[in-house]
Amino acid sequence: MAGLRLEDFEATVGESWQVEAGGRAVPMRLEAAQSLSRALRAEGGFRLEWSGPADPLLPQGIYRFRRDGRDAEMFIVPVAQAGDGFRYEAIFN
Question: Which CATH architecture group holds 6-92?
Answer without folding.
Answer: Beta Barrel (2.40)
